[in-house]
Amino acid sequence: MDFSFTEEQSMLRDTVAAYLADHYDFDKRRAVVTKEPGWRPEVWRAFAEELGILGAPFSEELGGLGGGPIENMVVMEEFGKALVVEPYLGTVVIGGGFLKHSGHPGAAELIGGVGLVDRRAPVRRAAGAWLAATLVAIFPANVHMARHGERFARTPLGRVALWARLPVQAVFIAWVIAAARRDRDGGDRVSRSPR
C-alpha cells in the first residue's frame, strides 16, 4: 500500500503552509483570541477566496474541490502547526460533513442556502447561481406533478397546491438571484453603480 500524498494533496499542504507562514504568527493569534469573535474574518475570507480550502472536502458537484477526509486531514495538520483559531473544524468538517453525509435529498440545497447568506460575494454568487439553476431544472417536474395531480395529491386542496407552487417557484428564483447579488452591507449591488 502506498500511503504517500497525491500531487494535489501535497500542493494543498504546501499552499496552506505557505499562507499560514506569511499571515499567521503567534503574536497576532494571541491578540485575536482575546477579542470577539475570537478569530479573524479576513483570514476566513482568505481561506475561502484565496485558498479555496473551505470547499476542499466537498465534491465538485457541490462547488468543492472534490476532496474528502484526507484533504481535511492535510488542512487540519497545517492548522494545528500554526494554532489556527478560525472555525474550520466546526463549520467545514463537522457541519459540512453532516450535511454531505446526511443522505437527505435536500442536503445540497441546504448547503446552497448556507452559501446564499454568506458574507463573501463569490460564495454568495456561486450558491445563488446553483440554487437558481436547480429551481429552473426542477420546474418541469413540478409542472408534471400539477398536470397529473391525481397521482400526487390525495385531496382537491392538495391538487390546488401543486398548481399554486408553480408561480411561487418563479418568486423563489428571483429571490435567490437578488440575494446572491446583494453587496456586503446588505444593499443591492446594482443600485449603487454610478450613473
Largest beta-sheet characterization:
none
Order of helices and strands: HHHHHHHHH
- Strand segment tally: 0
The CATH class name of the largest domain reads: Mainly Alpha
| Helical residues, percent | 55-70%
The CATH topology of the largest domain: Butyryl-Coa Dehydrogenase, subunit A, domain 1
Under CATH, the homologous superfamily of the largest domain reads Acyl-CoA dehydrogenase/oxidase, N-terminal domain
Gyration radius, rounded: 21 Å
Mean pLDDT comes to 81
The helix tally amounts to 9
Poorly predicted regions are 184-195
Distance between the termini: 63 Å
What is the structural class? mainly alpha
CATH structural architecture of the largest domain: Orthogonal Bundle
Choose one word for the global shape. elongated
Number of domains: 2
- In terms of DSSP E residues, the strand content is under 5%
